[in-house]
């Protein structure tokens, strides 16, 4: 079947620290991969995406590379800010299907 | 412009009551989705509409759950005879395209309705 596994949180970092949130997936074929972010009290927002192997998605200093050989899409940021505190969800969508599969989310707390 | 809106934002229901949750998608968006998000979990797919047609309802957990989108815009998710296990946040999302083959396909989410069944 199709599934997404994320590292459990919460992840607590100091401001300007390096961030990695691990995400691995199981899917047949060639899915598209996404990271969504949910700030407190708000809906999920698309952070970045990658649609084929070796693509790198990037936005707001966050990056993730679609690695088919390791079925991974880890989220990274070189220097986190307090405003990055949120819950991050990794998701996949199989080509030619409309359904998204989400991971369980990773809460990030950034302390000043 | 206006995003996806949902109402009510919070709903408390006694076990056995029926509830109706509303979703207003972004104007002109063809596709509409409902997800259920349990506490501490990611969203799980419930159902999908393309315009007024319900093309996939494979995620609806029981026949107590029913969704409609009669005019291809506003959608309502109805839960009959609510049970405690129905307590969750119900998310609605919409997308501009109905062409499922586009790999860059993006969904826009509403803030959700938090349902608590007591």
Total beta-strand segments of chain A = 12
Q: Would you list the SSEs of chain B in sequence order as H and E? A: EEEEEEEEEEE
Q: Whole-number radius of gyration of chain B?
A: 14 Å
Query: What is the mean predicted local confidence, pLDDT of chain A?
Result: 93
Q: What topology emerges from the helices and strands here?
A:
The complex is a heterodimer of chains A (112) and B (118).
Chain A: E1 3-6, E2 11-14, E3 19-21, E4 23-26, E5 32-38, E6 45-50, E7 56-59, E8 62-65, E9 75-77, E10 86-93, E11 100-102, E12 106-111
Parallel strand pairs in A: 2-12
Antiparallel strand pairs in A: 1-4, 3-9, 5-6, 5-10, 7-8, 8-9, 10-11, 10-12
Chain B: E1 5-7, E2 10-13, E3 19-24, E4 31-37, E5 44-50, E6 53-56, E7 65-68, E8 75-79, E9 88-95, E10 108-109, E11 113-117
Parallel strand pairs in B: 2-11
Antiparallel strand pairs in B: 1-3, 3-8, 4-5, 4-9, 5-6, 7-8, 9-10, 9-11
Protein described:
The complex is a heterodimer of chains A (112) and B (118). Chain A has 112 residues and is mainly β. In chain A, 0% of the residues lie in helices and 50% in strands. Chain A is built from no helices and 12 strands. In chain A, the strands form 3 sheets. In chain A, strands 2, 5, 6, 10, 11 and 12 form a 6-stranded mixed beta sheet that branches. A 4-stranded antiparallel beta sheet of chain A has the order 3-9-8-7, with no helix packed on it. In chain A, strands 1-4 form a two-stranded antiparallel ribbon. In chain A, a hairpin with a 2-residue loop joins strand 7 and strand 8 (62-65). The radius of gyration of chain A is 13 Å and the shape is globular. The model of chain A has no long low-confidence stretch (mean pLDDT 93). Chain B has 118 residues and is mainly β. Chain B is built from no helices and 11 strands. In chain B, strands 2, 4, 5, 6, 9, 10 and 11 form a 7-stranded mixed beta sheet that branches. The model of chain B has no long low-confidence stretch (mean pLDDT 91). The chains are: A mainly beta (112), B mainly beta (118).
């Amino acid at each position: 079947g199709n599934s997404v596994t994320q590292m459990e949180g919460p992840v607590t970092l100091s401001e300007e620290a390096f961030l990695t949130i691990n995400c691995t997936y199981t899917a047949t074929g060639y899915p598209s991969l996404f990271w969504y972010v949910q700030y407190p009290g708000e809906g999920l927002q698309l952070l970045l995406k990658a649609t084929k192997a070796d693509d790198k998605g990037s936005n707001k200093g966050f990056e993730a590379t679609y690695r088919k050989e390791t079925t991974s899409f880890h989220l990274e940021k070189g220097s986190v800010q307090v405003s990055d505190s949120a819950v991050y969800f990794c998701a996949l969508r199989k080509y030619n299907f409309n359904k998204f599969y989400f991971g369980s989310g990773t809460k990030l707390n950034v302390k000043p | 412009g206006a995003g996806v809106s949902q109402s009510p934002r919070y709903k408390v229901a006694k076990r056995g009551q029926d509830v109706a949750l509303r979703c207003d998608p972004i104007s002109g968006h063809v596709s509409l989705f409902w997800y259920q998000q349990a506490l501490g979990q990611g969203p799980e797919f419930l159902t999908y509409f393309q315009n007024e047609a319900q093309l996939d309802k494979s995620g609806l957990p029981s026949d107590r759950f029913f969704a409609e989108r009669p005019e291809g815009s506003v959608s309502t998710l109805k839960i009959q005879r609510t049970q405690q296990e129905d307590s969750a946040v119900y998310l609605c999302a919409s997308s501009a395209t109905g062409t499922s083959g586009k790999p860059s396909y993006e969904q826009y989410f509403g803030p959700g309705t938090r349902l608590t069944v007591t």
